[in-house]
Design a protein that fits this description.
Helix 2 packs parallel to helix 3 and helix 5 runs antiparallel to helix 6. This protein has one domain: Rossmann fold. It is built from seven helices and seven strands; from the N terminus they run ααβαβββαβαααββ. It has a seven-stranded mixed beta sheet. It is an alpha/beta fold. It is globular and about 45 Å long.
Length: 214
Amino acid sequence: MPRILRPELLDSLPPDSPAARHSRRDLRRLDRILGNTRWFVRTVPPLARPGETALELGAGEGVLALALRAAGLPTDALDQFPAPAAWPAAARWHVADLRAFANWHDYPIVAGNLILHHFDDPALAALGARLDAHARVLVFNEPLRHPRAALLWRLAAPLGGANHVTRHDGRVSIAAGFRADELPRGLGLPPDRWTWRITETFLGTQRLVALRRR
């Protein structure tokens, strides 16, 4: 089934609305269940070289960036919204649309959790061109576009107390997710310059680790 991109409700809500706060709580709980942040913490720091700083795309509340920093990897963040109140002064928080971000050269390591499925094919290719020009390590976790993932979400989300925003956005995210090597191909990573590993979890995530060959 082809990727289908539709707007997500959380993106249109005021950040302090009750529905948005509930949905963000749902997403934090889902992250714990899926083990996404734990996977990043296991995966990214060993790939870093001395002196390198990582960048989290679409940082939101900065959960992933803070976890990587706690694991010893200097990590900055990029988001369209300002930094949360608890964001450390020692870390940079870039307020920008990543499609217009100009500081890619500062970050040889780029990571993102559930962010790239928001982008259509032309936007993915444009982002990939910037990453190919500057990055050395790319680590992303995205929804797996698979009937099993859709079924599990339809059954589990109501049982887990997810609100209508989270239930809707989960369905939309799965439909916009990735299969096989669609993500590195969509980013346009040249196989002669990049090698990648893709894993798909039973619970519905696809994980990409891409390393520059030279």
